[in-house]
Amino acid sequence: MEIINLTYPLTKEIIDDNARPQVLAIGQFDGLHLGHASVIESAVRTAASLNLPAAVMTFHPHPKEVMKKGDYDGYLTPPREKERILKSLGVDYVYIVEFNDAFSRVSPQNFVAGVLVPLQIHTAVVGFDFRYGYRGEGDAGMLRELSDNTLEVHTVPPFLIEGEKVSSSGIRRALAEGEVQLAARWLGRRYSIYGTVMHGEKRGRQIGFPTANLKPDEHFVLPAKGVYAVRVNYEGQRLEGVMNVGVKPTFHNDKSAPSLEIHLFDFNGDLYGKSLSVELVEFIREERRFGSIDELVAQIGKDADTAKSMLLAAE
Ligand SMILES: Cc1cc2nc3c(=O)[nH]c(=O)nc-3n(C[C@H](O)[C@H](O)[C@H](O)COP(=O)(O)O)c2cc1C
Ligand SMILES: Nc1ncnc2c1ncn2[C@@H]1O[C@H](COP(=O)(O)OP(=O)(O)OP(=O)(O)O)[C@@H](O)[C@H]1O
């Protein structure tokens, strides 16, 4: 899979290097949830049947971050995570269009005439509610006419679960409420955060529950503050543990950014500086302030037992 960064307007060099008949799925695709997968899989299938390469076009940074509106609070799939998943879907080319103020003002006409036509897109595959161009004025139906009928357009019907359209914003809402199982059903996999283990305040070991403090490698959306049963992938080993996402109100009054602390079961190696990914399996309870360290320690012991039985029952 090749990744191509594009800036509008496209240069002659970029066009010369990338113009080829190809099937293109277009969208923000943050999360690469089951709805996104149905669009991209449809593009991959169509490409195979036409014997053409399959491509995906996405935008970076997230338009909601640039336009400072909506529910943006990080990425469900920051760039490297998105690449990993797109690769597994069988995509040949990924075009990442730089999303900035100027690009947000490109009209639907100029998007088609200045990007899709020069790249020789044979078929564009989009979801039923795809919008593009300045103020989202363009829709799927307009793609074909704006290209002077050179472009085939496939529109993918809504992917629903229990009657609801699977969406990135729904997954953000679920994570913000600690509903990690709902998020996992919509994602088609458990939500995971990739990061590096940093030095913490060194209190964990003293209280009998050493924790790995995870600094996310990219700007991941964090789930609601609280305690979670987790699975951890470390150098190919699958470990299990319990994670606190929070500000440790028993020790601090500040409202600093939440930290991610993982107590791994049956593990006592040195993790400082190591890369891990942590999969959220189940929410256990909200974070709270304890009156004494003994009470906190007793509760963490119970959390660990709860997490173990949840992990045993989880597939
Ligand atoms: C499973 C688990 C649950 C936790 N729950 C809370 C909590 O509810 N309130 C709190 O103030 N700290 C909570 N903590 C955070 C501990 O206070 C923290 O792990 C300890 O202070 C060590 O921090 P350090 O790594 O910065 O030294 C929890 C930690 C774990 C591992
Ligand atoms: N559930 C779905 N079923 C079919 N197509 C979808 C679904 N969700 C998104 N798409 C399509 O995937 C592409 C990318 O959409 P987008 O990233 O805006 O998805 P979204 O999850 O609806 O996002 P948000 O919740 O932030 O509005 C678009 O073409 C869109 O129409």
From TrEMBL:
The keyword Acyltransferase does not apply. SMART domains: Flavokinase. Its EC number is 2.7.1.26, 2.7.7.2. InterPro entries: FAD_synthase, Riboflavin_kinase, Riboflavin_kinase_bac, Riboflavin_kinase_bac/euk, Riboflavin_kinase_dom_sf, Rossmann-like_a/b/a_fold. Pathway: Cofactor biosynthesis; FMN biosynthesis; FMN from riboflavin (ATP route): step 1/1; Cofactor biosynthesis; FAD biosynthesis; FAD from FMN: step 1/1. Keywords: ATP-binding, FAD, Flavoprotein, FMN, Kinase, Multifunctional enzyme, Nucleotide-binding, Nucleotidyltransferase, Transferase. It comes from the Bacteria. Belongs to the ribF family. This is Riboflavin biosynthesis protein.
